[in-house]
């Protein structure tokens, strides 16, 4: 979580935006994850907390009598996969009107942890340590730009270069003080990675050529949860932390207090309104000027800065199985700051989102399906993940209309594309244990990055040359495939089922360009219906009688689309997706 400035507001108006995004986005995501975990705890029966027992035979001279004894508690390894889609009314968490824009945000995370259970040592039966790593990819897309009058540089779609990855290494030491109160100490190391190169960010007005500031976080937590009935409970969570950054531009004390009321509407559905207050104070900011060589009069946005933030929200959680849940959330946040930088600290934001999560304790499950014929019949699979498109390359020498909204001359054109997202819905039918068929309909959304080639480009605002370095490109590449596929699964009774798929059909695609280099276009787009094919491989992981977790790789190819005369041959898209397969 970092806020990073390398220059004043006057020199680089947009330099501070990505740091503000990274900090607030990470804080919001972690808070949402905690509330979801607590929502799943409500309504568990007393038997869930009782130690399991097993029978064992004793000596034959006592006949066939069976004795019951506790199964020893075993350490477990936890795997968690979760995804969240949010609509943000203020994606940059900015007060300055020229940076206030609405956007869709996708957060995809994978977490692995080890949590040993200690029962053999006196006084440690209620002590719960854990350690692990969590990687989250934050993707911003389909944004609504600020008005041109409020955008000083006329740079739109700069959110496309805000994508980043957060890697969190954590250790937790939690102690159950009573049935309702748990306290803990934790240490986290957060490191950020841009998903785009410095050149790509500079082309969209971003001047930072380093990572976000990495963080070392020491925290004390206390969680109080009181159940009024098996369907109603209240929780109060307090967290006090001290944060050091690397490089040492500042330190921060960060404190939050959250109250949540949980109501179980049914055995699977819970409602959780909440209110939260956060107070953060930034100190030791003088190292910023020492490392950058700027005069101390230069505002940096965090020296002796005090932030306070209020959040009101409502969550709706659906427990599909003990391991799998999904939900909806609505949050309103308002933050006030003493920061001298207009873009950060002060903001108002409305968030609406949907999420799902799957948590699996690897050492506590058997990898055997009682009856593999349960996998036969109709199913519906939904997949969500990342889309990585190969460059759109052509050996053409184009004259006249080159691309949507762009004319001129250009030889050997090539368009590089930013990573994006892919979503699929695939109803199908399993004929037997190893063969099925499915109809897959989906959408792939990617932002454009760069245009290479040799020639001259002309838009409605002017002309520019394209040489060896190319020019920056802003716009989108949209693909909507509709394919009929065969699915070959590994037969047998195992919970883990690898599979292969291949399909053919059609795809609608759209190429839209809004800006080339420093010149905007007329926002024209070119669309095409093309034959398409797909191949993929993946792994089903059965987590209940009717639900599978799915991870897969897909390759999508479009056959000879034509975008205003630009013919990229067979564009290839590679996707890594996670999903849920529900059998009926």
Give a written overview of the molecule.
It is a single chain. The chain is mainly beta and 584 residues long. It has two domains: 17-41 and 73-363, Lipocalin; 372-583, Beta Barrel (Porin). Helices cover 7% and strands 59% of the residues. It contains three helices and 27 strands. It has helices at residues 17-41, 198-203, 286-292; strands at residues 53-57, 66-70, 76-88, 102-115, 127-144, 164-176, 181-194, 214-229, 232-246, 251-264, 269-283, 305-319, 324-337, 347-361, 377-389, 392-393, 397-403, 406-417, 420-430, 435-458, 463-466, 471-489, 496-516, 519-520, 525-542, 547-558, 572-583. It has a twelve-stranded antiparallel beta barrel with strand order 3-4-5-6-7-8-9-10-11-12-13-14. An eight-stranded antiparallel β-barrel has the order 15-19-20-22-23-25-26-27. A hairpin with a 4-residue loop joins strand 20 (435-458) and strand 21 (463-466). The longest helix has 25 residues, at 17-41. It is globular and about 80 Å long. 38% of the residues are buried.
């Amino acid at each position: 979580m970092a806020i990073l400035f390398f220059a004043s507001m006057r020199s680089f108006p947009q330099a501070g935006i990505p740091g503000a995004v990274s900090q607030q986005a990470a804080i919001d995501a972690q808070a949402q994850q905690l509330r979801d975990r607590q929502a799943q705890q409500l309504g568990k029966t007393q038997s869930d907390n009782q130690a399991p027992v097993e029978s064992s035979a004793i000596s034959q001279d006592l006949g066939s009598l069976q004795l019951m004894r506790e199964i020893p508690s075993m350490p477990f390894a936890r795997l968690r996969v979760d995804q969240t889609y949010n609509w943000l009314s203020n994606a940059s968490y900015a007060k300055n009107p020229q940076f206030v824009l609405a956007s869709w945000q996708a957060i995809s995370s994978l977490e692995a942890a080890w949590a040993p259970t200690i029962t053999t040592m006196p006084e440690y039966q209620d002590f719960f340590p854990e350690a692990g790593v969590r990687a989250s990819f934050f993707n911003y897309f389909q944004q609504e730009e600020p008005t041109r009058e409020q955008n000083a540089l006329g740079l739109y779609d700069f959110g496309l270069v805000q994508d980043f990855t957060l890697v969190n290494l954590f250790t937790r030491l939690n102690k159950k003080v009573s049935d309702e109160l748990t306290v803990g100490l934790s240490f986290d190391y957060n490191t950020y990675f841009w998903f785009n190169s410095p050149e790509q960010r500079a082309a969209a007005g971003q001047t930072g050529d380093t990572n976000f500031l990495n963080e070392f976080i020491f925290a004390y937590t206390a969680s109080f949860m009181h159940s009024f009935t098996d369907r109603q409970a209240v929780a109060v969570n307090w967290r006090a932390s001290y944060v050091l950054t690397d490089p040492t531009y500042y330190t921060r004390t960060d404190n939050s207090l959250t109250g949540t009321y949980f109501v179980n509407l049914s055995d699977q559905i819970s409602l959780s309104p909440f209110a939260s207050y956060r107070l953060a104070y930034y100190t030791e900011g003088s190292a910023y000027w020492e490392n950058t060589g700027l005069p101390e009069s230069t505002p940096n946005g965090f020296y002796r800065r005090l932030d306070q933030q209020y959040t009101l929200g409502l969550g709706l959680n659906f427990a599909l199985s003990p391991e799998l849940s999904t939900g909806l959330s609505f949050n309103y946040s308002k933050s006030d700051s003493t920061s001298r930088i207009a873009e950060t600290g002060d903001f108002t934001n409305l968030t609406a989102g949907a999420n799902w999560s799957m948590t699996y304790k690897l050492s506590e499950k058997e990898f055997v399906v009682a009856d593999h014929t349960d996998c036969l019949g109709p199913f519906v699979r939904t997949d969500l993940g990342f889309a990585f498109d190969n460059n759109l390359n052509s050996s053409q020498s184009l004259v006249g209309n080159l691309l949507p909204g762009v004319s001129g001359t250009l030889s050997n054109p090539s368009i590089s594309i930013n990573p994006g997202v892919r979503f699929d819905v695939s109803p199908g039918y399993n004929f037997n244990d190893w063969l099925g068929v499915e109809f897959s309909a989906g959408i792939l959304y990617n932002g454009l990055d760069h245009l290479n080639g040799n020639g001259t480009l002309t838009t409605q605002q002017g002309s520019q040359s394209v040489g060896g370095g190319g020019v920056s490109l802003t716009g989108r590449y949209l693909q909507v495939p509709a394919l009929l596929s065969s699915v070959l699964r590994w037969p047998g009774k195992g919970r883990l089922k690898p599979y292969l798929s291949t399909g053919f059909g059609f795809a609608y695609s759209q190429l839209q360009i809004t800006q080339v280099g420093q010149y905007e276009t007329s926002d024209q787009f070119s669309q095409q219906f093309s034959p398409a094919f797909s191949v993929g491989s993946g792994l089903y992981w059965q987590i209940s009688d009717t639900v599978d977790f799915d991870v897969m790789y897909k390759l999508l190819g479009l056959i000879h689309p034509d975008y205003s005369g630009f013919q990229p041959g067979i564009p290839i898209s590679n996707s890594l997706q996670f999903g849920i397969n529900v059998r009926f």
